[in-house]
Every structure is written in C-alpha cells, then in structure tokens.
Design a protein that fits this description.
The protein is mainly beta. The chain is built from one helix and eleven strands, in the order H-E-E-E-E-E-E-E-E-E-E-E. The strands form two sheets. Strands 2, 5, 6, 9, 10 and 11 form a six-stranded mixed beta sheet that branches. Strands 1, 3, 4, 7 and 8 form a five-stranded antiparallel beta sheet that branches.
Amino acid sequence: MKRFLAIGSVLAALTLSACATKEEPQSKMVDEVPEIVEVDLSVPETAKIGEEVVFTTAVTQGGGIVEDADEVKFEVKNIDTGEKEMLEAHLNKAKQYEGQYTFTTKGTYDVTSHVTARDMHVMPMKQILIKQ
C-alpha cells in the first residue's frame, strides 16, 4: 500500500509539474517614444472666387516621407458662416497629399489638414482669404 502511495505521489507531482505554465518571454516594453509624424500644410494666402485652389500636405516621420497614411483629408471652414466641407486627398507625384477646392463665396476660411498615419493624428491649420 505504501508503494502505491509513493507511486501515486510521484505521478501526481509529475502531472502537476507538466501542467505548470511555462513562462513565455514577455514582449519587450518599448520605452522609446515613436517619432512624431510631422505635417507641413501649404495653403495660398489669398485666392479669388471661382478659382481652383490646390492644398498640399507633406507628411514625414523621422526625416522619411510617409506614403502610407491611413487617411488624409482637408477641412475647409468659412469662419463667418461656420459652414465646412471635408475633401479627400490623394498622393501626388511629388509624394505629397493634395486636394483641390473652388471657393464660391468671399471671406476668410480655415483650412485644416487631418492626417492619420502610424497611429497618430495631426491637424495643422492655415487661413486663406477669398476675394471677389
């Protein structure tokens, strides 16, 4: 009987040790902050009603051009009326994101570039004055 208890104890110990969870190497915690996505928005200072205006946004990170942004849009907002419109941007040959807009009303407008890239969202803004 003692023999069965001894064998049972050994088997139980082996079974429990086999079931013990092995420690997986933990993923390294990155203490480094990722480099910031930088956005350079270009908007003309003035334009005329009916004139097509081109907005461009250069997106970089760590000195390299970002061609794989998740989303780039331009928000055009009339400061006087509060009306706004969102425009889709596309990557041009110069590897900048570009959008075109034709203003139909004079006034001062805020143009905001909404850039979502590499888990960051950046929103630089510039103004444009539309004359008749």
